[in-house]
Amino acid sequence: MFMNFRRISKCQCMQLLTTGLLLSVVMICWKDLDHHVVSHMRSYTYRYLVNSYNFLNSSYALTSIHHNKKDEVSDVDAGFVNYPYLINQPGKCGGGGGDRKSQDVLLLLFVKSSPENFERRQAIRDTWGNESFIWTELGARVRMVFALGVHPDVRRRSRVQSELMQEDRAHGDLIQQNFLDTFHNLTSKLLLQFHWGHKYCRQARFLMSADDDIFVHLPNLVKYLRQLLSTESGVKDLWVGHVHRGAPPVRRKDSKYHVPHDLYPWPSYPDYTSGSGYVVSGDVAAKIYHATLLLNSSMYIDDVFMGICATAVGVYPQEHVYFSGEGKTPYHPCIYNHMITSHGHATDVRTLWQAATDPTVSGNSRGFVSHLYCTAVRVALLCLPYYQNTYSCMAAFT
């Protein structure tokens, strides 16, 4: 049977061509469509309809894990690989331990840094991580340390390590353990933070974890933490940041976030905050520390592992609209007056610090007219799609 092409109208021809084009696009993009649409629909259904992660306790319990090398596991911290310290600051919080007799610390701030990022660390010391400035200008005792592993390149490791030792002698703020500083060892860095904090700075009211390309508006953060402490109920079970809810595991093997089914077979992660910057209260820091002693740390995505630990001890993340996600926040004085964190500042930390802490910024939103103006500016900046990974549109109205 032959088709008479003369009888096909121009309209039908266009329909056939359009259908063929759409089918071709779907076939080419099916893998991405499956990842971005199907997996997210499946994960959200699981998160909001099933909403039970009790299986994590049994699946990640250390009793169900068989270790091949018993000598790699600490006798004190069962299941936790006790990497030796290469650089340590046991007296950073005022004493040799974590008892309440040591200095009262409002915030223990861990900055996750790579060994070669000398310039980023110095920029942080000169700006938002300057302990002397925070004490002099804000009257708050904040202790900041950089958490590191060893350089993964054997050929460069010796030279970088020598430079790190020199840097630590000058500043006394590096904490380093003997594990490779790679993406797949970020969970080891998370364990380093909570174990060090529990041992050497247990008196800290709050603990913050941040990347070294994060900008933290310390004056706004200190004000926020003090407001929490001033409430009659006090601060308990606080875990605050940019929350990811119902996030699906990435199954694409070409992604650095790839997680195979045998490591995490379920369609949705428990809720967690972006690992770029979050804050927990002292009681939550203690709970997470104890959870790391009981749970297998094979999940190498550190913020997901944080969610697993928190779920195991009954702690759930709280959204704060001015904690940034993966993106950089807009530059504007009406934003600076509220911002807590912003992501993606590897080179502009000094200029942003100068602009964000300018004394004139605090006066920009005072008064009814100024408040309306800043609200309109924030709506224009934050309610656009390309800023969805920073602050949500709701932040414009707070």
Automatic annotation (TrEMBL):
Catalytic activity: a neolactoside nLc4Cer(d18:1(4E)) + UDP-N-acetyl-alpha-D-glucosamine = a neolactoside IV(3)-beta-GlcNAc-nLc4Cer(d18:1(4E)) + UDP + H(+); a beta-D-Gal-(1->4)-beta-D-Glc-(1<->1)-Cer(d18:1(4E)) + UDP-N-acetyl-alpha-D-glucosamine = a beta-D-GlcNAc-(1->3)-beta-D-Gal-(1->4)-beta-D-Glc-(1<->1)-Cer(d18:1(4E)) + UDP + H(+)
GO terms for biological process, alphabetical: protein O-linked glycosylation; sphingolipid biosynthetic process
Source species, domain of life: Eukaryota
Top-tier EC class: transferase
Compartmental location: Golgi apparatus membrane
Main location: Golgi
InterPro entries tied to this protein: Glyco_trans_31
EC number, UniProt record: 2.4.1.-
Keywords: Glycoprotein, Glycosyltransferase, Golgi apparatus, Membrane, Signal-anchor, Transferase, Transmembrane, Transmembrane helix
Record-level Gene Ontology MF annotations: lactosylceramide 1,3-N-acetyl-beta-D-glucosaminyltransferase activity
GO annotation, cellular component aspect: Golgi membrane
The protein's annotated pathway: Protein modification; protein glycosylation
Protein's membrane topology: Single-pass type II membrane protein
Pfam family, one: Galactosyl_T
Family membership: Belongs to the glycosyltransferase 31 family.
PANTHER family given in the database record: BETA-1,3-N-ACETYLGLUCOSAMINYLTRANSFERASE, LACTOSYLCERAMIDE 1,3-N-ACETYL-BETA-D-GLUCOSAMINYLTRANSFERASE
Name under which the protein is recorded: Hexosyltransferase
